[in-house]
Amino acid sequence: MKSVDYLGMTEDAAKTIISNRELQSYDFERAQDLVSIFLGEGNKKSAESLGLEMVESKSGYILVTPEEKFSSEKNTLTIDFECLDFRIVNHNLIVAAIQKTLRFCVKYWGNLNFNNNEYIPPSSSKAIVFPFPMNSGAPYRITLERQPSEKRMSRRFPGKHLLAYRFGTNGGDGTKEEYPSTNFNKAIEILFSHESYQKNKDEEKRLQTSFITADLTEEKVDTSSILGFSDPFKKLSSKQLTFIKTVYNEPARIEGPAGSGKTICMVLKILYWLNEVNKQGKKVKFLFIAPSTEMVNNVHYFFEVLNGSIESYDENLLEQVEIKTLQDVCTQFLKQDIHETELLDEDTFESKNIQLLHLVEIVSDEKNTLEQKKGFISSELYKFINDEDEFHIADMLRHEISVVIKGRSDENLDSYKDVKRPSYGLPIQNKNDRSFIFDIFNKYSDILNNLSQFDVDDVAISALSKLDSPIWRRRRKNDGFDAIFIDEVHLFNMNELSLVHYLTKDSSLSPISYAIDLAQALGDVAWNDVDFNNSVGIKNETEQVKLNAVFRSSPLITDLAFSITSHGANIFTNFDNPISEAPYVYNDQLEDEHPKYYLIDSSSNIYSKAFELADTIRDKLGARKHQVAIIFFDRFTY
């Protein structure tokens, strides 16, 4: 499609765009129309989907609201597409840039205070907006001219007029930079034309009604507001709905950073398909797998609240869903072979933490005697163990023991020396390194033997032997599940995931839906998409939905997360950072909030103060418990 030369809009049109929650992230279908308009490729239909009216001319177009009337004084924004091109960044960032620019304009027109990312140079008619987190390197900026009209024109067209004419990492010629005015003059003529505000009354009524019906701005924009919201499906983005409506007996993947609504989507998908199947007079059996007992409790809560939010929903349908940890599923098959007291912990998450603690203790001892083994192991492995933090080393050892030694080598040294290792993990260079690591594994096994306990991998591998058997193959059709849903799949390793496809009713199908955040993928640091699909038995193509918008955290927290993930340890060389392209979905009031710091005299008082503050914030905001987060930086305290 041929791109126009300019876009003009009134203040009312800008306010309409920034107040519509479906225009805050490219995940929503309407935001795609917004992007097309701001790339100069829009049309009347795309403007109508935003609840706006488009007036076209030979070389450009303007946006006004359907109810807007002619006025001799207006505040306006013009974007010169001959000088400014948003195509240099991806669509998610384009949406963020649009929203940030329009929010600045509204503040400027209303004489409001500016944020840190908005700057007006002294003794200059320019304005600079930095729409993205200012990480290392030259930040992207949008340059606006605040006095684009000549004196003669300013008398003809009263109001505050802005011209956006530069976008990129280049600052141009500074505060005295010349700007083009041809397209601005064309836009301002149309914006102040009587003809631009003469509409057919019936059409105006139709557009207005359509806009009001889809306007969700009176509701909170955060994903957590879906809990308790009447008809929660109306709150979802187009991408979230795509995942939910993918047939339950087909593989589907939903990916996104923390706070993008993955768990909510998993729960809503189950509720949606339980209802659809029930309409057909059928019954199904679903399994929801969560990584910890705490998450199981949260999911039960989500089901309870969301089920009550859907009109005329039959609560009895929830009896067709089992919500468990994978360890619970395994122990169910091993109930004659293992007792709960023989597990490191009944909670999978805590069991992995205890496993890590045992390995930390061993690593600490190894560090004390490492100099004696310097000539035996490779320099790379020596440097890694000598320099890295004990917990980091233990994390990598846990992966090596779980996936390679137990999962691929059957705890046999000769097999381990020859087995193919993952692409990344411990810096193992030769067989001596493998012997050294296997010796650590033996020490770890001795600890478990002395305690007469089993870790999560022992349980998973033992359960696998029960599932891959003639007895289960006969029972599978009756006792298996029609579909399996795995939340936080990045927290599971390959041994655990290899069980999943045995739990379905039909071995020829892959009815597995899962949610993943690659930035948190510490369950098994070395798996990729191919490894994962092979482990869980997915053979056919998976419907993939990638969420980008983060609803859970404020912009300041998102910036912090971006900074941390951008400057992580060198061992995460293939690290996928979803925060780098996460748009902000917040109003200005939330964005202006700053953290408060408290000095507490002891550790025990910190915990009580944290819960006290959480209750205070909850009361102040009128929020529910699930809408307030307490973040621990120590996994064991958590």
From TrEMBL:
Gene3D superfamilies: P-loop containing nucleotide triphosphate hydrolases. One of its GO terms (molecular function) is DNA helicase activity. Keywords: ATP-binding, Helicase, Hydrolase, Nucleotide-binding. ATP binds at residues 256-263. PROSITE patterns: UVRD_HELICASE_ATP_BIND. It comes from the Bacteria. Residues 235-554 form the UvrD-like helicase ATP-binding domain. InterPro entries: DNA_helicase_UvrD/REP, P-loop_NTPase, UvrD-like_ATP-bd. SUPFAM superfamilies: P-loop containing nucleoside triphosphate hydrolases (SSF52540). PANTHER family: UVRD / RECB / PCRA DNA HELICASE FAMILY MEMBER. This is DEAD/DEAH box helicase family protein. The lineage of its organism: Bacteria, Pseudomonadati, Pseudomonadota, Gammaproteobacteria, Enterobacterales.
